[in-house]
Amino acid sequence: MPRQISISPRVQGLLLMALAAALIAVTSLLAKALGKGLGGSELHPVQVSAGRFCFAFLTLMPFLLWCRPGFHGAPWPTHIGRSFFGWIGVSFLFAAAAQMPLADANAISFLSPMVTMALSIPFLGEKVGPKRWGAAALALFGALVLTRPGTEAFQPAAILALLSAFFMGVEVIFIKKLSNGEPPLRILAINNGIGAGISILVAAFFWREPSLLQWQLLIALGITMVTAQFCFIQSMKRADASFVVPLLYATPVFAAAYDFALFGQPLSALSAAGIALIITGALILVRRERAAKLRAK
């Protein structure tokens, strides 16, 4: 009999998180393709985000019918707040992805932990020490290197990516409130269901009839996103967050590779430096927050 290869839970967690990062980068690639009019007319970012949420929810439907998660007692105001700010953040990220290099847009969106850190002081009562502020300053300096405001190299679309980071940072405040006791499948179902409802209402004002190819890309976008969310959750189940989460910050690397392969967009040395600074600052924040949680136990 062939020898079976056993993979430890920690390695499984790493592989799943790497897959989540690769898939998240794919969603920004699909959003860019749709925003640039691949296969038809250019689609508005809110229409693209509607496809992301609607088809993600439809992908979840068979699992919901099979598992039948209960929704009684769910903290609906927190879920609604998380879904609303998440939808805004995704829409701004998709808008930025259509107008600037994917690696840059994804890297700027990773400034969201800095927003979460700042908001956690008044809303969650957390204390932020000088090391975390230093990490935030490092990441913000990376954003300045990446966007280069005041120069001819400045990308106006970077403002959209910064807005995405802000709203995603607000979303994490709500996610933190949901982290205690909420079943993962219920979180996924409510988030994508509410996101689908909001995005459909808004997208109706910007609707353009997609081509057959664009319908296929929208379906792929939803399936890819919910698969990335599933991989992320399963990764966190198998290994400690401080061990696997750093791999999520490989997303801009995957995005740069996809962007070059499909659109011929190279990554400049200065952009690479800015991305590295943002990721370094974000990783320091993640580790410091994890250490603070361990001390609090």
Reconstruct the topology from this structure.
Layout: H1 9-35, H2 45-67, H3 76-97, H4 102-109, H5 112-124, H6 130-147, H7 157-178, H8 184-203, H9 212-238, H10 241-244, H11 251-263, H12 269-296
Helix pairs in contact: 1-2, 1-3, 1-9, 1-11, 2-3, 2-8, 2-9, 3-7, 3-8, 4-7, 4-11, 4-12, 5-7, 6-12
In brief:
The protein has 297 residues and is an all-alpha fold. Helices cover 76% and strands 0% of the residues.
Question: How would you describe the overall organization of this protein?
Answer:
There is one protein chain. By secondary structure, the protein is mainly alpha-helical. It contains twelve helices and no strands. It has helices spanning 9-35, 45-67, 76-97, 102-109, 112-124, 130-147, 157-178, 184-203, 212-238, 241-244, 251-263, 269-296. Helix 2 crosses helix 3 (76-97) and helix 5 (112-124) crosses helix 7. The protein is globular, with a radius of gyration of 19 Å.
Helix coverage percent: over 70%
Order of helices and strands: HHHHHHHHHHHH
Low-confidence stretches: none
Q: What overall geometry do the principal axes of the alpha carbons give? A: globular
Number of beta strands: 0
Radius of gyration over C-alpha positions, nearest whole angstrom: 19 Å
Count of discrete alpha- or pi-helical segments spanning 4 or more residues = 12
* pLDDT averaged over residues: 88
> Which structural class do you get from the secondary structure elements?
mainly alpha
User: How far do the termini sit from each other?
Assistant: 47 Å
Please outline the major beta sheet: none
Strand content: under 5%
